[in-house]
Amino acid sequence: MPEGQAKRVGLFVTCLVDMIRPSVAFAAVKLLEDAGCIVEVPRQSCCGQPAFNSGDRATARAIAEQVIEAFAPYDYVVAPSGSCGGQLKTHFPELFHGDPNWLPRADAFAAKTFELVSFLVDVLGIVRVDASLEATATYHDSCSGLRELGVRAQPRRLLGSVRGLTLKEMRDPDVCCGFGGTFCVKYPDISNAIVEKKAANVAATGASLLIAGDLGCLMNMAGKLQREGKPVEVRHVAEVLAGMTSEPAIGAPAHAQAEPRR
Amino acid sequence: MTHVATSPHFKENAKAALADTELQNALKFVEVNIVTRRREVVDRLPEFDALRDSARDIKNHTLAHLDLYLEAYEQKVTAAGGYVHYAVTAEDAKRIVLDLCRKFGARTVTKGKSMIGEEIGINDHLEANGIVPVETDLGEYIIQLRHEMPSHIIMPAVHLTKTQIEADFRRAHDKLPADRDLTEATSLLTEARTILREKFLAADVGITGANFLVAETGTSIIVTNEGNGDLTQTLPKAHIVLASIEKLVPTFEDVSQLLRVLARSATAQEMSVYTTLSTGPRRADDPDGPGEYHVVILDNGRSSMLGGDFADMLRCIRCGACMNHCPVFHAVGGHAYGWVYPGPMGAVLTPSLIGVDQAGQLPNASTFCGRCEEVCPVRIPLPRMMRSWREREFERHLSPATVRGGLAFWAFFAKRPRLYGLATSLLARLLALIGRRKGRFGWLPLASGWTRHREFPAPQGATFQAQWKAHKAGRR
After folding, report:
1. Nearest Cα to A78, choosing from A7, A145, A8, A12?
2. Which of A203, A246, B336, B396 minimizes the number of CB atoms within 10 Å of its CB?
3. Strand ranges across the sheet with A113-115
């Protein structure tokens, strides 16, 4: 890409953010635009992980082809998720193993694809954000982001620059929350046993806010904390970094009707 | 006990395990202590990751030339005065071992810990033929008393608490004074040692497993912490080694590298307490040792894994690190997996050995968190191989109809982004309308597995893509 030109980023929204929590995508757009990128959102559905992880390789491949086509015009593809990001970056090329037509395209696609926070830090070289939030927070490392994409230091570094925010590490922040995509549907009781431990570790920090980079994990942990009546707000890292925390936290009630402005 | 696989009932097994408070207490030892100690011992060795690469390469090289190394190994064993027997199936292995025991007129057989022994069900077979097998590894001894299978490949009784073991000892050792103190781990160990001492002396044959078979010398190696293996193999008339084909390693140089990753990965030790090397029977000037030395090398389906999707699994050195770090294993323990090998390595290996139709649940019961692969000392891509099993199941229509149906329904939309956008937009608006005030749902149709245990957040409103379109139009 020529020096000095704005980077054109195709935002891979992820199906969960698209449907459940659009504010995460708006936060991602803000972070990217603040960093000087031009953000576009081509029509999209999902990264295909449910099919891929259920053994339906043909469907996973069909979806991958569709995604690669849709994002062909962009310099970069950025996803506010380590799990979907891992699917795009690590597993798409696996799907086209031995295919002389598609493998080079999948490899090129993988090379320009990044998880949001690692894109901000590792590619754009951002070291601080302009945001503030008075809170003590704890950060959960989602598995795919951590182990497939090496996302560990980057979110902590940027969160460290949020004014008023104190980070307090929980016990085993890098241990799975039990979500596992289709796993939590196929094995709900085991998934529950795992998220119970996670919720206890979160609560033990005394933090008022739980942050992570994957909406699936966040929904799982928020759902458990709420069911157990633990007063911890749960938010996506992009919302905190973008300073967009006026929306109710995940699973929190809608704000009461605002007073009319005088 | 006979090893009828309960793997098809993994879900039921898991449910029972989750409700078993003693088990849940016992499992904390793995989740907390073992994991922490491994981290510490690995952090003290800066070249650990380089050693893992080397360990992987050694095993890959050996597997690529396995036929040659097996031949070389056999020649060396024979030259040292021992015998090598090849067993294609578990049945073959059992027959060979029984024939040998009969040849030596064995009535009692002592056993060192052997997962191959578990895999072929050697204890039942000997017992059914009037020979008494006595497990001499403390963990194996305990589960033999309980007529259980090991719940872990290196800590067979890790599913038990001290209190349970005390109760077992009082029941089994009923000739000992009832008022003896058995509250400490050391007193349990002392009692087992005392009982086992007589068995060692009475045994006619000793059976051990093998961690490595060294091709350059014809040596079998076991690593233990109790020294029971040494007494098992040196005191009786004959020593039978039970091993499988992938235990081959070319040289001692290779073994010394593998040992460095094995003990650290398995028990967080720098070295196991005993590393015992056996080459052939007792020689004329040896102070002790068995009169005959036999090695039974089991295939049991492994050779058909070579060169296939699951070949990497044959690198496994049975350290147990994958299960020690597995959140699913921490939740349900090893017995839930329903056969000999639990945890991530079992989820990959078991379908290879007993069939994916029997063990298909196991590779599905993973969150793909990747921690197993992260700690594996020979870098086995366990999640990838679990996924390969899921693909086989899907191809063979073994996955449940509800799963397939749900997936097909979702895929229909996911493959048509425009239609998908319309459908999700409607659904999101509907759910937002119902759930916005409370912000979440305590119950949702078709999501009872989720809502049984946790709340489900209400969507914020229209989908992002719908909002983005409006937002873009507004910006223009």
Report:
1. A12
2. A246
3. A38-40, A8-11, A76-79, A113-115
In a domain, A247, yes or no: no
pLDDT tens digits, B355-375: 999 999 999 999 999 999 999
Q: What 8-state DSSP symbol labels residue B31?
A: I
ipTM at complex level: 0.95
Find where tokens 């119902």 sit: B434
Pull the structure tokens for residue A32: 């990217």
Residues A139 and A220 in one domain: yes
What total of structural domains would you count in chain A? 2
Radius of gyration of chain B (CA): 26
Residues from chain B contacting residue A223 (CB–CB below 8 Å): 440, 450, 453-457
Chain B's closest residue to A26, CA to CA, is B464
Phi, psi torsion values for B111, nearest 5 degrees: -130, 130
Q: Which of B326, B374, B454 to mutate to test the interface with A (most CBs of A within 10 A)?
A: B454
pLDDT computed for residue B166 by the predictor: 96
Same domain for A66 and A109, yes or no, is yes
In a domain, A255, yes or no: no
Sequence letter at residue A112: K
Range list of H helices, B84-216? 90-103, 115-120, 122-128, 138-145, 162-172, 185-202
Phi, psi of A166 (to 5 degrees): -110, 130
Give a yes or no: residue A260 inside a domain.
Answer: no
What is the predicted pLDDT for the residue at A260?
Answer: 45
* Residue A236 Cα, gap to closest chain B Cα (Å): 13
Q: Where are the beta strands (DSSP E) in chain A?
A: 8-11, 38-40, 76-79, 113-115, 132-139, 163-167, 209-212, 233-236
Chain B (312-331) residues lying within 8 Å, Cβ to Cβ, of chain A = 327-328, 330-331
Domain CATH for A29: 3.40.50
Same domain, yes or no, for A171 and A74? Answer: no
Is B167 in the A-facing interface, judged by CB distances under 8 Å?
A: no
| CA count, 13 A, side-chain hemisphere, A138 | 23
Q: Which of A143, A80, A142, A68 is nearest to A112 (CA)?
A: A68
Q: The tokens of B252 are what? A: 């001692």
What is the domain range of residue A176? 127-241
Q: Match domain B7-304 to its CATH number in 1.10.630.10, 1.10.10.10, 3.30.70.2740, 3.40.50.10420.
A: 3.40.50.10420
Residue spans of the domains in chain B: they are: 7-304, 417-475
Q: What is the pLDDT of residue A3?
A: 56
E strand or H helix at A191: helix A188-204
For residue A206, give the CATH number of its domain.
3.40.50.11810
Give per-residue pLDDT as tens, B411-459: 999 999 999 999 999 999 999 999 989 999 999 988 888 999 999 999 9
Mean predicted confidence (pLDDT) in B187-213: 95
Of B144, B90, B106, the closest CA to residue B301 belongs to B90
Residues of B in contact with A56 (CB under 8 A): 391, 394, 407, 411
Among A148, A219, A253, whose Cβ lies nearest the Cβ of B439? A253
Domain shared by A64 and A118, yes or no: yes
Rounded Cα distance, B3 and A247, in Å: 56
